[in-house]
Each structure stands twice: as structure tokens, then as C-alpha cells.
Amino acid sequence: CFVCGETGAAITCWEKGCDCSFHLPCASQSECVTQFFGLYRSFCWQHSPEPAVHATPEQNSTCIICLDLVKDKKPYCTMVCPACQHAWFHRSCIQKQAIHAGICFRCLRCQNKDQFVMEMLTMGIRISKRQPSRESDQAFGLVYQRHIRCSASKCLCPGGREQAEEEGSWQLLLCSSCAAKGIHRRCSYLRNSATIWECNCC
């Protein structure tokens, strides 16, 4: 293993010509990426896939999950939603959420699912294929529950405050500052091209 130097390293970097081998538990120590889908490819830190969005968090940016500062600027440790490019999180935080959220895993800020999930899988986040484990972990359950209602004083959606679509008039936008409140595009009179909304409190 090129990380710990011990024998029994059964994983080899997928890159042609690279003979770096490592143990799965050692992978994260050296910023290796293992993709838990498709061909289940693994890459050493030199050949890891590049994120879809090359962005650097601004000063005082916080992880949308733990609310601690995002200090490490390296793409491996600090990740961003490729859809809204406003939701920052630590790799360890998003990995925990991916396990708890299961098939409901999506960006907590913009609610994007397809683009977000594909990016997380590509960058080595393992996503559970089960129902959300809200009952076993109330903290993650509450995070999801607080984002699935329209906060408008008068919700115009025929399906009610709980209805949220992937795009269009009834897509639920979260406050770009606190992410604690959401609103349908139509209820806030925003154009379909708008991606940012802020609640009255912020």
C-alpha cells in the first residue's frame, strides 16, 4: 500500500500506467477516490476525478450541514453543489448525510437531485439505496423536514406547501443565506431562470 506501506493492498489505481495500490481504509488518508457505482473504479490522489465546478469558497463560508467554517480549500475535503454552486460542505459531512438520506439524497440548498447525485458519486461519495433513516437519526431528519415546505404567506401551489418539483414554477428555492426557509418560484414571483432567493429574515 503506497499509503501505509503494509501488504495486502488489493485496490489499484484505475489510471492506465499507474501502479499505485492501496487498502480501502487507507484511501481517504491520502485523498484517493473510490466510486461506489458502475465499474467501482478507484483512483490514487494524482489521478482522482476533477469536480464539475472549479470554485473556491469565499472567506467565512460555512458547511451547510455542520455550519462550521469551510477552511480547507482543497476540492477533496471541501465540496460544492454543481447545480447552485452556493452549497458548501465538508466531505465527511456530506458522506454521513448520503448514508442517512438514502434515496432522498439531494442538495439541501437548491434541492437538485440528478446533477448533485451524479457529482457526489463521481467524487467518491457512497450513497445508500434505502429509505431515509430519519427515525434513527433525528438530526438529519430535521434537516430534510425543514426544507420541504413553502414559507410564503400565501402559497399559490395547487398541490399545497408540501409539493415541490425539480424545476419550473413549483420548484422550491431555499434561502441562499440561511437555507432554513423555502419558497416556490411562483409564490415569490421569480422567473424560472432565477436560482437565488433570500427570505425576509435574511
TrEMBL record:
SUPFAM superfamilies: FYVE/PHD zinc finger
InterPro entries with a match to the protein in the record: EPHD (IPR034732), PHD-type_Zinc_Finger (IPR051188), PHD_PHF7/G2E3-like (IPR059102), Zinc_finger_PHD-type_CS (IPR019786), Znf_FYVE_PHD (IPR011011), Znf_RING (IPR001841), Znf_RING/FYVE/PHD (IPR013083)
Protein's UniProt keywords contain Metal-binding: yes
MF (Gene Ontology): zinc ion binding
Residues in PHD-type domain copies: 1-48
Keywords assigned by UniProt, alphabetized: Metal-binding, Zinc, Zinc-finger
PANTHER family xrefs: PHD FINGER PROTEIN, PHD FINGER PROTEIN 7
Protein name: PHF7 protein
